[in-house]
Amino acid sequence: MPFVLAVALAAPAAKGQDQQTPSASDIADGMRLYEQKGACQACHGWAGDGHKSDSQMPDGANLRETKLNRAGLVTTIKCGRLNSQMPAFDKFAYSDGRCYGKKQADLKAYPIRMPDPAATLQPREIDLIVDFLMAKVVGKGPMDHAKCVDFWGSEADACKEFSK
After folding, report:
1. Which stretches within the chain are classed as H helix?
2. pLDDT band at 71 (very low <50, low <70, confident <90, very high)
């Protein structure tokens, strides 16, 4: 009987893990969304290391060193960060209390106002960005030449700044 219970408990976990393994296509789509529609690199840098690409934008967190897990990243992208410059990319984030239990009127209590994002993102787009971040950025340590080539999939101009 204990063996059957162990198998029954292990099966859902294994299935959930399989569902969270993104394809190369999903990772590429997430990277494209990170760079273009989400414009994440403007604050977080192309490598997610906080070296922003737009001097007019606020400094973003170093995502290579973040302690956030997948769920934390999804929430942060959807809901932004209260009292910071990290915008909420969910169009309805503060319309109904879905984010941190707050509504739009509650945000006035914070001294730093969240900016509007360049574009809002659909839930699937947020998942794709997180797929990309988990595969290529989070926990990968400082960028170097080999990681840069892996990141871009080839020898990109950005990789020239790193010694081989």
Report:
1. 2-19, 24-35, 41-44, 70-79, 123-136, 145-152
2. very high
